[in-house]
Amino acid sequence: MTVLLRHYDMEGPGDARGLAGALAALPPGRLRRIAVLGKTEGTATLNDFSRDLAIAATQAALGGREATLIFSTGCEGVITPHGTLIVEMETARDPAGPARLALGVAATAPIPVEEYGGRGHALAVAEAVRRAMADAGATAEQVALVLVKSPVLPRRHLATLPPERAARAGSTPTSRAVAALGAGIALGEVAEDRVTDAAILRDGSLHSRRVMAFSGTELSHCEVILLANVPGAGGDLVMATEPLADIIDAPALMRLARRVGLQPDGEGLFTTSAPEALLLKVGVRPGGALRGRRTTVFESELDPDKHMRPVASGMVGALFGTTRVFISGGSEQQAPPGGGLAAMITRAA
Fold it and tell me: Which UniProt keywords apply (predicted)?
């Protein structure tokens, strides 16, 4: 199996022309798995239908091909709206070969309304991640990154739920947190018995380490894209991650760049050797303090993630000289409070 990446920029959420062109250039008989990761402009609010538009355009471009789709809305700052086509081609796998990027996908069944944002939701994600690992032929130790798209409990169910469940309605942080904990269970990073309804969004010591979770109202189930470095997978792509201490942890990004072999330019930055793909999940600790000083991230007319994406995109643009980066705000239980995660796909030397 050989994983290929193809990026395409988008003129708007409904623009999938680049995807159609990338698919047309691939040998159709050898496609084993297809996944699309998209970053589109939009309000990123509960009634933001740009995701639906992007998904409809993507499905039309796929022309009936089965694919796993994860779209994240919000390009504030200097983020170029874009999609990344991830395909795995049918090739022989040599277990004795070097570790290379492998792709696995899975999905949960629709999450029952009464389980949204709770332990049952997390366990459903855990089971899907295990299936994605099997699909990739990977062990938990070989997994580089798990991406999970998780549904948000619609407010229309408020009248039919008990108060403790109704409190989760419309909560995107809850959706992300529960998805992260479920994936963490499957990866062996989170003890299953500690994932209780009371711990979700409350126990900051309980978090995954190789997961990026996204929420949305456009689905009622969870989608999983799993990337792993598997011996003999074929191709020349590999993936590495690095935890971020906070949203302005530029040294962590530079450590990761050096670790994966990117060459610095004359200023010590990486503007001439950007990775094949760069993904960031960023957050700010509850209360909004950053390095001991007050910020207005949680005290503004803007949603918190609309503060986070511009900050992170400016930092990435300065370090790597690119605006084609996948940045998502809200790292609830995907890192210690206020922390985050960076991931890079590069070509092996």
Answer: Hydrolase
CATH topology of domain 93-235: 60s Ribosomal Protein L30; Chain: A; (3.30.1330)
User: Coil, strand or helix: which one is 4?
Assistant: strand
pLDDT tens digit string along 6-48?
999 999 999 999 999 999 999 877 889 999 999 999 988 777 8
Instruction: Answer yes or no: are the C-beta atoms of 77 and 314 closer than 8 Å.
Output: yes
Residues 47-100: tens digit of each pLDDT: 788 989 999 999 999 999 999 999 999 999 999 999 999 999 988 788 889 999
Q: Which architecture, in CATH terms, is 236-347?
A: 2-Layer Sandwich (3.30)
Distance CA 286, CA 71 (A): 26
pTM score, whole prediction: 0.96
The first and second tokens of residue 202, run together, are 């409350």
* CATH 3.30.1330.160 domain locations along the chain: 236-347
b/e string for 33-72 if b means 16 or more Cβ within 10 A? bbbbbbbbbbebeeebebbbbbbebbeebbeeeebbbbbb
Strand partners, 243: 341
Q: Is 289 exposed, middle or buried (0-12, 13-18, 19+ CB in 10 A)?
A: middle
Query: Which residues lie closer than 8 Å to 70 by C-beta, 6 or more apart?
Result: 35, 36, 37, 38, 147, 149, 214, 223, 225
**Burial degree of 232 (CB within 10 A; 0-12, 13-18, 19+):** middle
